[in-house]
Design a protein that fits this description.
The complex is a heterodimer of chains A (512) and B (380). Chain A is an alpha/beta fold and 512 residues long. In chain A, 32% of the residues lie in helices and 26% in strands. The radius of gyration of chain A is 25 Å and the shape is globular. Chain B has 380 residues and is mainly alpha-helical. In chain B, helix 4 crosses helix 11. Chain B starts with a helix and ends in a 9-residue tail after the last helix. The C terminus of chain B is likely disordered. The chains are: A alpha/beta (512), B mainly alpha (380).
Chain lengths: 512, 380
């Protein structure tokens, strides 16, 4: 396989952004036929820029692209598609109200008798393609009825339908559950078996080691190494990626819990569809303690945090923080009492994407001094808002040209850092973390874990919810297992073994 | 120097599409003028648009009278445009400016007539405030309904526009009809009329409108309330998460929007019309939507857009007198401006503009409020 000539070569690719960022600094990349080639790098390392150059979305300042040995110029995505390049973006480009078949053929429709759309023929081909890739899909289903994993497969079908031989996947697993990740890997292996060449962008070490034939690591716009999975390991890759030794394990240290800070008793709540998804939750978090909640997604965790922060009305039960009853308190009242919340969905809750960074970094304290003052306390203090942004950008290594950059233009990892930086105040009583490291690279995860432990040691109570069981187990001083809206088990950290917790998560124990 | 260039670049980014849309509208309207000239007694005249636009310009800005007519016509549009624009900032589409304008005008007329004999320094401000409160109350209703029940403001404000017309017609006929006139109307304003500051018709309402521009700008840019309004408009979930109360802010914004529309009605009543009679047109209400779109909801942008639309109104008569091009061509130009704003892709293609924002976000609000959330046919 290695001695075959590369199907795609990128040589000396340079891209300098007007903001002064050298996103790609003489990058060389060679993709061989029938290989899965992982591009590994931190958020903002330049992976996406490189792929956008390949797909004709960004024009390089210098460098050469060769396909099958022939130099080519790619002006726009239509050019890229014509040359057999397909791209699956992190955020899907599907029309939600159209069917699978309509989405796949869109822009490349089969027509009969001049103008009549032949959707049936398209649907037939789609079914066939899906079967070849090892999954079933009903081409007549509307896309908004599909799960995220299924939608991603539709994106892949779209590319293959257009005869893509080179498929680029931009962080395909960031939005998937572990089960869906396994399934998509199966699809990618089948694709490779069919002779396609795949570029797989990721910053998840275990994944690239599992799926890739070759791994190219990019750091700050440069290729810093290329490895085969068999000749490397997570620690070496992490070090290459970040540029220093990274500890993949958390050094939690000893906790010194004080008195109970958060006390929840008999909490019940309904989800948006009116189902009772919280069925009497009792829990307490002590000052200086990290309490982790393990559970398969959809067992009421989301509703629990929303009830805690005040975004969802409980139907019964009480919430007390440091002795104050906050069951029916407004969100800002809870914040004033020392609650902070890193939400799972940063686009829904955590950020206003059109706002500049500085407004986002003060979003949850916009009305408090020093951010507001003057007449009736309603005059915004821009000096303080900007100063706060500059300080937090430095402290949390948020990579952006300046505090006026719109939050929506940052990479996902940097956006997450904005939310974390804002919520990790020093005067916290309760920090609620819902998937705090989703979409972050190892360097950033290490940093945020340290910050979490720092806040705990400052005496804050921390409630952690994560889909990554390892994260819950690594960070928590105590682990609760949530199942169908109830707490079904409690483990002190030293007794929380992966298997025991995982079994309880899946079955709910005796109550299942 | 570079700061100046950056500022210019910023202005160009937001203003380029509206400016080019205006230019394109004039070009297309010129074609209409030339084509329609074929059917007049003078026959085909390819230079007619130049003459017509020249007269339009002269009528609007060519003389003291022209300028004051432009300003008088612009003043209610400025306030109405601010009303619509403020709603857009909160993600609300207030189509009810027409109704709020009428209620404001009516309240100012009734209170003004009552105070006709009082000293002007008291009578005029009180009448003005009555108009503002009337508009605010009429804006509060859809705001409150939206916040409490989710009733869509596009639907409720359209219905309230009709309610306003009918309710006020009844009120003028049966409640406050002034004696001694052959048709139903409110009494004379007397001392409640806004003082004329300059010339024949430049009344106090004009500086009030300009003051409102800077007040709204200050509110939106400098205050926490303005930040709340904008945040609710951009991301209501994030607003809730940040501790804001979208229910309260929605109600507040619609009330403020109604207040601005009410002031528009009040200054028009106290500065121009003089009395309330059924059949008073509220075309200001609908032109305000166009002004807000053209001004991209930015108070300063709205100021310029309103002056432009005011100039159309003020200059059109001279155009018709001098060149026989009918004043209705103004409606065509205004409609084309909005068309090209909505279909900004055309503007981009024609002028090869790349830099500016791809979609005008106010229009996104319009389409979103139209398509999403509203009951079927809600926007029709």
């Amino acid at each position: 396989m290695t001695d075959q000539p590369p199907v795609l070569e990128m040589r000396g690719i340079m891209k300098l952004f007007p903001t002064g960022t050298l996103a790609n600094d003489a990058i060389d990349l060679a993709l061989r036929p029938g290989e899965i080639h992982a591009l590994l790098g931190e958020n903002g390392a330049g992976k996406s820029t490189l792929m956008n150059i390949l797909y004709g979305l960004v024009t390089p300042d210098a460098g050469e692209i060769r396909i099958d040995g022939q130099p080519v110029t790619i002006h726009d995505p239509a050019d890229a598609i014509a040359r057999g390049i397909g791209m699956v973006h992190q955020h899907f480009m599907l029309v939600p109200v159209l069917s699978v078949a309509e989405n796949v053929v869109l822009g490349d429709e089969i027509v009969r008798a001049g103008q009549i759309l032949d959707l049936g023929e398209g649907a037939r081909r789609i079914k066939l393609l899906a079967q070849k890739l090892g999954f079933e899909i009903d081409p007549s289903t509307r896309v908004d009825q599909l799960s995220v994993g299924q939608q991603q497969r539709v994106e892949i079908l779209k590319a293959i339908y257009r005869n893509a031989r080179i498929l680029v996947l931009d962080e395909p697993t960031a939005v998937l559950t572990p089960q869906e990740t396994r399934e998509i890997f199966e699809v990618l292996r089948r694709l490779r078996g069919e002779g396609a060449s795949i570029i797989f962008i990721s910053h998840k070490l275990d994944e690239v080691l599992e799926i890739a034939d070759r791994i190219t690591v990019i750091r700050r716009g440069k290729v810093v190494g290329s490895r085969r999975p068999s000749e490397t390991n997570e620690n070496e890759l992490a070090e290459l990626m970040v540029g220093r030794a990274v500890s993949l394990r958390v050094d939690r240290g000893r906790s010194h819990p004080g008195e109970a800070m958060l006390e929840v008793r008999g909490l019940r709540a309904r989800n948006d569809r009116g189902h009772d998804v919280l069925q009497g939750v009792d829990l307490s978090v002590r000052a200086g303690e990290i309490l982790g909640i393990a559970g398969v997604a959809g067992n009421g965790q989301e509703e629990l945090v929303e009830a805690l922060i005040g975004l969802r009305k409980p139907t019964a039960g009480t919430i007390r923080l440091a002795g104050h009853d906050l069951t029916h308190a407004l969100v800002d009242e809870r914040r004033d009492r020392g609650m902070a919340f890193v939400p799972a969905d940063r686009h829904k809750y955590g950020l206003v994407l059109t706002y500049p960074l500085d407004d986002n970094l003060a979003l949850t304290r916009y009305g408090d001094p020093p951010f507001a003052g003057g007449f009736a306390g309603i005059i915004r203090n821009f000096k303080a808002i900007t100063a706060n942004a500059i300080r937090l950008m430095k402290e949390f290594d948020i990579r952006a040209p300046d505090p006026k950059t719109p939050a929506g233009t940052l990479s996902g990892g940097n956006q997450q850092k904005v939310v974390v930086a804002r919520e990790f105040r020093h005067d916290l009583r309760l920090l609620v973390l819902d998937q705090p490291t989703r979409g972050l690279d190892v360097g950033s995860i290490e940093f945020i874990h340290k910050q979490v432990i720092g806040r705990r040691d400052d005496g804050a109570a921390v409630l952690l919810i994560s889909a990554e069981l390892d994260e819950v187990l690594d960070l928590s001083d105590r682990v609760l297992v949530m199942f169908r809206g109830q707490i079904v088990g409690t483990f002190p950290a030293e007794e929380a073994q992966r298997e025991k917790v995982g079994l309880l998560m899946a079955t709910g124990g005796a109550r299942a | 120097m570079s700061r100046l260039r950056r500022a210019a670049g910023r202005i160009w980014r937001v203003a380029s599409i509206p400016l080019l849309a205006i230019i394109l509208a004039f070009i297309v309207a010129a074609v209409v003028i030339v084509v329609s000239s074929v059917f007049t007694s003078t026959g085909l005249d390819v230079f007619l648009p130049l003459g017509a636009y020249g007269s339009l310009l002269a009528g609007a800005f060519g003389s003291g009278t022209g300028i004051s007519n432009t300003l008088v016509a612009a003043a209610p549009l400025i306030l109405g445009g601010l009303a619509v624009g403020l709603g857009f900032k909160a993600g609300l589409f207030n189509i009810g400016v027409a109704g709020q304008f009428l209620v404001g005008a009516f309240a100012a007329a009734v209170v003004g007539a009552r105070l006709a004999g009082a000293p002007g320094v008291i009578a005029a401000p009180v009448a003005l405030i009555a108009g503002a409160l009337g508009g605010a109350a009429f804006g509060f209703i859809p705001g409150f309904l939206k916040a409490r029940t989710g009733a869509h403001e596009v639907v409720t404000t359209i219905m309230l526009n009709n309610a306003a017309v009918l309710l006020l017609t009844w009120a003028v006929n049966d409640l406050v009809r002034a004696p001694g006139f052959s048709f139903p109307r409110t009494g004379d304003l007397g001392h409640s009329a806004l003082p004329i500051l300059l010339g024949r018709n430049v009344h106090l309402g004009i500086p009030i409108a300009v003051l409102a521009v800077f007040s709204v700008r200050w509110l939106l840019d400098r205050t926490t309330n303005g930040f709340e309004i904008r945040t609710v408009g951009q991301n209501p979930n994030a607003a809730r998460y940040a501790g804001m109360r979208p229910i309260f802010i929605t109600t507040l914004t619609m009330t403020l929007s109604g207040l601005l529309a009410g002031v528009a009605g009040a200054i028009q009543m106290l500065g121009v019309i003089g009395f309330y009679a059924p059949g008073i047109t509220a075309s200001v209400g609908f032109d305000s939507i166009a002004v807000a779109l053209l001004g991209r909801s930015d108070p300063i942008g709205i100021l310029f857009a309103a002056i432009l639309f005011g100039a159309f109104r003020a200059g059109a008569p001279l155009m018709q007198i001098e060149t026989s091009v009918p004043v209705e061509i103004i409606d065509i130009i205004q409609a084309l401006v909005i068309l090209f704003l909505a279909a900004d892709l055309i503007v981009r293609r024609v002028f090869r503009v790349r830099a500016a924002k791809p979609v005008i976000s106010e229009l996104a609000t319009v389409t979103r409020t139209w398509a999403g959330g509203a009951p079927p046919g809600g926007g029709a």
